[in-house]
Design a protein that fits this description.
CATH architecture of the largest domain in chain A: Orthogonal Bundle
Protein name (chain A): Sugar ABC transporter permease
Oligomer: heterodimer
Helix content of chain A: over 70%
CATH superfamily of the largest domain in chain B: MetI-like
Distance between the termini of chain B: 28 Å
CATH superfamily of the largest domain in chain A: MetI-like
Order of helices and strands of chain B: HHHHHHHHHHHHHH
Helix content of chain B: over 70%
Largest interface: A-B, 92 and 96 residues
Main location (chain A): membrane
Strand order of the largest sheet of chain A: 1-2
Membrane topology (chain A): Multi-pass membrane protein
CATH topology of the largest domain in chain B: MetI-like fold
Number of strands of chain B: 0
Strand content of chain A: under 5%
Number of domains of chain B: 2
Number of helices of chain A: 12
Largest sheet of chain A: 2 strands, antiparallel
Mean pLDDT of chain B: 87
Family (chain A): Belongs to the binding-protein-dependent transport system permease family.
Largest sheet of chain B: none
Shape of chain B: flat
Radius of gyration of chain A: 24 Å
Radius of gyration of chain B: 25 Å
CATH class of the largest domain in chain B: Mainly Alpha
Number of domains of chain A: 2
Low-confidence stretches of chain B: 1-9
Strand content of chain B: under 5%
Subcellular location (chain A): Cell membrane
Structural class of chain B: mainly alpha
CATH architecture of the largest domain in chain B: Orthogonal Bundle
Mean pLDDT of chain A: 88
Structural class of chain A: mainly alpha
Shape of chain A: globular
CATH class of the largest domain in chain A: Mainly Alpha
Distance between the termini of chain A: 37 Å
Chain lengths: 294, 288
């Protein structure tokens, strides 16, 4: 046995390098961003302005209009991901674990996951070339029309990331013990009944995990929109999401001056949106788990 | 449990089963084509002339339309070799740093169970869900103050911080599975803590491979941090390089497609090799 004093010393020694990097370049910047949002550093000197930056963000006609537009677009971006990825991911996972496949499982799994290995830049351009109205497979300018631009970009992203929910559901289905399935088969249940009555309830917790991860990832989204439409994503900001709005606020773009304080404020608002939802999710999850235990 | 099904499998396949099998494969092949064909179209067209691409988008290159001019243009106009070098340096450094720091931390969190260990582990695990990008403004300020803006080192530090939580979560599950007797035996034989960890490493090598493969993709493919922290010509990664190249040479389609192909192929190949480790890493890392 190791003495307690030694344990503390060893723990500190081994954990310190990781802790320093993690705190310095992940945790501290996030918290510092929230701190910065209460200051005005415009004149070189930092002065405390309370909620001044937030008031400015939500009352200035331009920034507030852009913010709400980006938020609504981001909700749409998230919902399209969730509603398309979940059913297709579930279908693929169910097919892969139907028990009828042998060695081909690995091949299908790898092929289906390939889009998720590409960079978003490549996915964006690849699809833009394929749906180019001049010579691609559709004549309608999907990306050039306000009503269809965001759904189109969302679906490109869905095509890319379909493999992620697929893998979560696939591994959850694999983890179901064979004897559970075998028992119901002996009881005379068919493949359809086994899936919906036995397997589906057992993998249900995965849907919560996928939903919350998709939520965090889409509200952190930026790359595909920027790759296709730049930092002021058109047509007429119809594909602007919180990530591109955030980027413009601190980096600037044509028609917008870079403002680090505004950037920190926008980041804090996005952080709050993500944090509140994630916390609510875990709170509900914990309560439900407790009721099941009782 | 498999013994029950064994006699059944030896029997002749019933027609209904055969139909189900055909349907299953047909569905999976169709879905796989949907995933792969768009990529293949780009790769195929990158070996064609502009006329060949516009003439018939879906036709494979023939004697008349075959051309590698796109690749020649990419290499003469872009900085692809430099971009690859930068991406390799950043990705490999991040992987090594993440594995070393993550393994040390996970080992200690599993091994030295003192009251604050679980809280510390929880503090790291929260990071899996933290949207690190939202700290970009202070990061940019810090990096500017330290004079490391527009260096590859800035990227490596941020990516390591970003990937450590997942690495620690993963390595923790693998270290937990190491038999306690083995470590006790090493200690009784007089091995110090470093030596004991060293003896344990071969047992968790699957975990190390999972961490490496799961760190590779998001780092190689990231656009946000290269754009903000290392945008200079000399420091551009492949992802940013492709993005800028495509923006600049909008009308040179063969070169554009060649650039996309060059950006995509290395990772697809690496993934095909390490897909097992990657999938294990993905499901074990998040699935807690």
């Amino acid at each position: 046995m190791i003495r307690t004093g030694t344990r503390y010393r060893m723990l500190a020694l081994f954990v310190a390098p990781a802790l320093v990097v993690y705190v310095a370049f992940a945790v501290y910047p996030l918290l510092s961003s929230v701190g910065m949002s209460f200051f005005d550093s415009g004149g070189g000197e930092s002065t405390f302005v309370g909620f001044g930056n937030y008031v400015e963000l939500f009352t200035n006609p331009t920034t507030s209009e852009r913010f709400w537009n980006a938020l609504v677009n981001n909700v749409e971006f998230f919902l399209i991901h969730l509603l398309v990825e979940l059913p297709i991911g579930l279908l693929i996972a169910a097919l892969l674990t139907s028990g009828r496949l042998r060695r081909s499982v690995g091949v299908y799994r790898t092929l289906l996951f390939i889009p998720a290995t590409l960079s978003v830049v490549i996915v964006g351009f690849l699809w833009r070339l394929i749906i180019n109205p001049l010579w691609g497979i559709v004549e309608f300018p999907l990306l050039g029309t306000e009503a269809t631009a965001l759904p189109t970009i969302s679906l490109m992203s869905v095509w890319q990331y379909l493999g992620i929910p697929m893998v979560f559901l696939y591994t959850a289905l694999l983890a179901i013990p064979d004897d559970v399935v075998e028992a119901s088969r002996i009881d005379g249940a068919g493949a359809w009944t086994i899936f919906w009555r036995i397997k589906f309830p057992l993998i249900a917790p995965q849907f919560g995990l996928i939903t919350i991860l998709t939520y965090i990832w889409t509200f952190n989204g930026f790359d595909i929109v920027y790759a296709l439409n730049g930092s002021a994503p058109g047509p007429n900001y119809s594909t602007d999401i919180l990530g591109t709005f955030f980027y413009r606020s601190f980096f600037g773009s044509s028609g917008q001056v870079a403002d680090l304080d505004l950037g920190a404020t926008v980041a804090s608002v996005i952080f709050a949106i993500i944090l509140v939802t994630t916390a609510a999710y875990f709170w509900v999850l914990q309560r439900r788990l407790k009721t099941y235990e009782l | 449990m498999t013994t029950v099904t064994q006699p059944r499998q030896r029997r002749r396949v019933r027609p209904a089963d055969r139909a189900a099998n055909v349907g299953l494969h047909a569905a999976l092949i169709a879905l796989s084509l949907g995933a792969v064909v768009p990529v293949l179209i780009v790769v195929m067209n990158s070996f064609k002339t502009t006329q060949g691409i516009f003439g018939s988008f879906l036709a494979p290159p023939d004697a008349e339309t075959f051309s590698v001019q796109g690749y020649l243009n990419v290499f003469s106009r872009g900085n692809f070799l430099l971009n690859y070098q930068n991406s390799l340096i950043v990705t490999i450094s991040t992987i090594v740093l993440t594995i070393v720091l993550g393994t040390l931390a996970a080992w200690a969190l599993v091994e030295y169970r003192v009251p604050i260990a679980p809280a510390l582990a929880g503090f790291f695990v929260i990071g899996i869900m933290l949207p690190i990008r939202l700290g970009t403004v202070p990061l940019l300020k810090t990096m500017t103050a330290w004079g490391i803006v527009d260096t590859l080192g800035a990227l490596v530090l941020v990516y390591t911080a970003m990937q450590l939580p997942l690495a620690i979560a993963l390595m923790t599950t693998y270290f937990r599975a190491v038999p306690a007797e083995l470590k006790e035996a090493a200690r009784i034989d007089g091995a110090g803590e470093w030596r004991t960890l060293w003896i344990t490493l071969p047992i968790v090598r699957v975990g190390i491979a999972a961490v490496a493969s799961i760190t590779m993709l998001p780092v190689w493919n990231d656009l946000w941090f290269p754009l903000i922290l290392a945008p200079g010509k000399g420091n551009q990664t492949v992802t940013l390089g492709v993005q800028q190249f495509v923006g600049q040479f909008q009308s040179d389609y063969p070169a554009l497609l060649a650039a996309l192909t060059l950006g995509a192929v290395p990772l697809v190949v690496l993934f095909a090799v390490f897909s097992k480790q990657y999938i294990a890493g993905l499901s074990k890392g998040y699935g807690k």
